Amino acid sequence: MTTETEATLTASHTRPAAVVPSTADPRPARKSAGHVIVDSLLAHGVERTYVVPGESFLDVLDGLHHSKIETIVCRHEGGAAYMAEADGKMQQRPGVAMVTRGPGAANAHVGLHTAWQDSTPMLLFVGLIPFAHRDREAFQEFDIKAWFDTGAKRVMVLDHPERASEIVAEAMFAAMSGRPGPVVVGLPEDIIRQQIDPAVHPVIPVAAGGMSSTDAAALQAALGESRKPLFVTGGNDWTQEAADQLTGWLERHHIPAAAEWRTQGTVSFDSPSYVGPIGYGRPRPTYDLLEETDLLVFVGTVPGDVITDGFLCRQDWNKKNFLVTVDPSLRGRSGAVSRQILAKPDAFVRDLAGIDLPVKDEWKAWTARMRGEQERFAALPPAEPAAGQARMDTLMANLVPRLPEDSMVTFGAGEHTNWAHRYFPTRRYASMISARNGSMGYSVPSAIAASLAEPRRRVVTVAGDGEFLMNGQELATAAQYGATPLVIVMDNQEYGTIRTHQERHYPARVSGTQLKNPDFGLMARAFGGFGITVTEDRDVPAALDAALAAIDEDGVFALIHLIVEQRVKAY
Q1: CB 475 within 8 A of CB 527
Q2: Phi/psi at 69 (nearest 5 deg)?
Q3: 554 & 420 share domain
Q4: Is 484 contained in some domain?
Q5: Which segments of 515-560 does DSSP mark as H helices, in order?
Q6: 145-203 tens-digit pLDDT
Q7: Taking Cα atoms as reference points, which of 85, 86, 29 lies closest to residue 447?
Q8: How many Å apart are CA 434 and CA 262, to the nearest integer?
């Protein structure tokens, strides 16, 4: 027997639909401000965003649901911010992180400081309490401008929903214009839910500057007078095309180039013009370069604290220093300024190509001498394992020959980074991704971001044991999204850099630097990757082969837990 309800349903499906006159509104359907923010990020070329979700920005998360932007859900806001910062180093646009108010914003602050000191374009979106609850000590309320204003290029709050797309465009522009850096955007949860016109604000073009005719004449004259010129490359504002063009120009003129601390690769590791890194842990010949050269040309960076060894080196105001940076404030500069050229690296290199100079024999000899010093410094140690405890020298000697030409390395802070500085063959721009503000916990998040951005390249990260445990849980993020870095954890059971300073200032009084660690290889397997713990040097080559096979054949991340000996046992 057919019920009345079933009969009604049947009839409704069999009757032809009534013809209704069209009353469609010719204007596009309205969208929430949160959804328009997502559309605007997509229009600016954002491919992924790194988030720790919060109820304060649910509407933006809803907009990401159907978007082409990949949402990478992280385990900690610090990890998410580091990933976005690393993404900004690799791309021609800011990396993007999204976190919630109060505690979430506090946890993300470390990535913001990294972006500020490293001059990295980055956007940090922070969900906020409802507009109507402001200044009433609502749950997780905080003053976003008071917290972030001294460590970001701009702090913006979306108080008018119709300006959602405009604020994204302004934030993108602010992060990339001048000296790149982080921008914070606050999103009150009630404002982003309001319906608005979905029109997307156009991208705001960023001025690149360039050499004026007088700049070019001054640089050409200074080079013509110089017997020992030196270029120093740095910053995160390059393209591969400009890096290649500069390398070719330097090689044709037999002029040397050094790299700012932790930015190696702009001039290839293999180039006859590349003479090494300048920064903490640098070799003595590179340190001497700064005083010996009679003309320094910094491109994309300035001689700051690290390069000048705490504002001590290259301080003579009679020295010739040309600073090529689009930042008119020269923030962080130390020492003499002969001339500033307001240009981003690409614009400067484009104009530099028009300067052709006769090559001097002095330049050839100077460059060849310094290149020889760099080759000796970077020569790999013996690959044959030694007896006894595992050694980083053996690992690097076996790893480097196994690396493809376009491999990348990432790392955070600590003495373990010295092996990457010295031996890793950086042959392309952004093949070394690191935290120049000395921030620990950066290695694993940056490696994940690099692997997601460059899935066909070999990504290696070198972490210390103390640093690894600050964000090692992000290996769960790697497993979830298919990132496949090779993670090397050098475990010497201490905060080694601080121990070194301690021994220097308080000899035989080790305090607060010693660690007892878990089995990191087991931890990696628990997270879904390959993990192996190595204590004996003879086992290093086989461990490397197994780890690389897991990445290539199984498509998982791999971790080598290398337990090395402390240089001096704790007292």
Answers
A1: yes
A2: -75, 130
A3: yes
A4: yes
A5: 520-526, 540-549
A6: 999 999 999 999 999 999 999 999 999 999 999 999 999 999 999 999 999 999 999 99
A7: 86
A8: 6
The residue type at 248: G
Evaluate whether residue 206 is within a structural domain: no
Cβ 307 vs Cβ 290: under 8 Å: yes
Q: Any idea what the Cα angle at residue 116 is, between residues 122 and 61, rounded to 5°? A: 30
Q: Has residue 497 been placed in a domain? A: yes
Q: Is the pTM of this model over 0.85?
A: yes
In-domain check, residue 18: no
Provide the residue range defining the domain that includes 249.
213-376
Residue 372 shares a structural domain with residue 234: yes
Q: Please, which residues bridge with residue 563 across strands?
A: 491
Q: Give the distance, in angstroms, between the CA of residue 375 and the centroid of all CA atoms in the same chain.
A: 27
Q: What span, in angstroms and rounded, lies between the C-alpha atoms of 156 and 126?
A: 10
Helices within 270-326 (DSSP H only)? 284-292
Task: Tell me the two tokens of residue 64.
Answer: 């990401």
What is d(CA 118, CA 235) in angstroms, rounded to the nearest whole number?
7
**Amino acid type, 407:** S
Overall number of domains in the chain? 3
| Residue partners of 472: CB distance under 8 A and separation at least 6 | 444, 463, 520, 523
Residues 276 and 304 in one domain: yes
Question: How far is the C-alpha of 134 from the C-alpha of 124, rounded, in Å?
Answer: 20
Find the mean pLDDT for residues 526-531: 98
pLDDT in tens, 310-322: 888 888 888 999 9
Residues 418 and 517 in one domain: yes
